[in-house]
User: Fold this.
Amino acid sequence: MKNILFIADSFMGGGLETRIIGQVNFLKKKKIPVYLICREYSHSYDGTFDAVSDALQTHTSTTSITAKNILNDVNAICAFCKEHDIKYIDCHPFWCTLPAALAAEKLKIPISFTLHGVISADFIDNKYTTAKTLYQLVFSYGFDRLFAVAEYLSDLYPYLPIKTILHNGFSASNIKNKKFQPTGNVAVVSRLDEVKTQLIIDFLPSLYEQKVVKKIDIYGNGEYYNQLADFINQNHYEDKISLLGWEKDVSDKIYKSDYMAVFGMGRVIVETIEAGVPAGVLGYGGFAGFVDHNNLIGFSKTNLTSWNKAKDSLEKEFNQLFKMPDYYLFNKQDLSDFESENIWKLYYETIISINHTEKVPSQTIAHYLEGHPDINILTDEELLLSCVRLLSDGSNPISPRLFYALFQKQFDEICELKQQVAELSTSIPKKIYHKIIKSRKTK
Assistant:
């Protein structure tokens, strides 16, 4: 295999970007050229890819979700693929998934999609029936392979054909040996979107009040940076808390600093553990505890985050950390079962075996959009009926009944499955789930 194209909405700095870089580095060892197309791109990543384009247009503004813009994105992807002789497309969230799937089908190139979290395949408000349906159809039938970063996503999306779990792994070459330093200095690292910023705001008062905590550094950037800054100022936390913005090499920064603990989720936990510092999971229910030798496997199945209620006593957790610091530090042998090299080897062995398969839903959607370039897919309900008619002509390999069920406004079958999942003890609490979903809805 050669010439792989990564597609994502943005490549500005965060866990998604760090994870993709891990894939890219593995592929480069295989002498495979790698490319990127997105809407927003940080030039701090220059040199990572063989070529980069930021030509995509589709994003969360309602005025941009038009057939014309989607088709422009399809054409931009197709042109980029032809220019660089792309043989495989590796797609990531969010809005880019529809044009990516349509472009792959147009070019007859195999394509995969990776679910990174709870909203990866459910980020559109239910009131936008047409757009939600189109994207749901693409997630269900528009890719040759669906990957997920943790097992819980298979439970959350039982109606999607997720076949391969690719965990966030640890790189043996990055793991540092470092003694615990009870300095009183801690850090919080996170992308500052609405949900994660609120989690930090809820957590900071408790962290600030801890007697053992002398200084709190916060690394991250995003659209809610100013809101977090206002919260810190309004509560007069400036004596302990500093907002330091985005840090490209978080692991190296943590290793060279004297932090006694770092809080975050997902890739932040990976980079903190690799840096030889105790990692505290700041999950969607609040602080879920420090990662230790007993709970690492459990956290890995939820992508190094948590949906459980916050720990009752942060002071108690710190006391335990001071008492048994080695229980929260890991060496290469401890992390051998989570070696990223093995994870990317599985990824590579999987994608080289994937071939393009015909996808009638993608063909149907493209056919209609090309004939109606001025429609807004958020509001045009005629698109649903047109797709149903085209898909029900008897020539497609998937049952028209199933397509019609997917096109129903209330998504009855999917909602019923979600209700069953919500009742499982391992699923996301409804209150937290709806809060997360609400934060990413189309404005």
Observations:
- Residues 67-83 form the longest helix (17 residues).
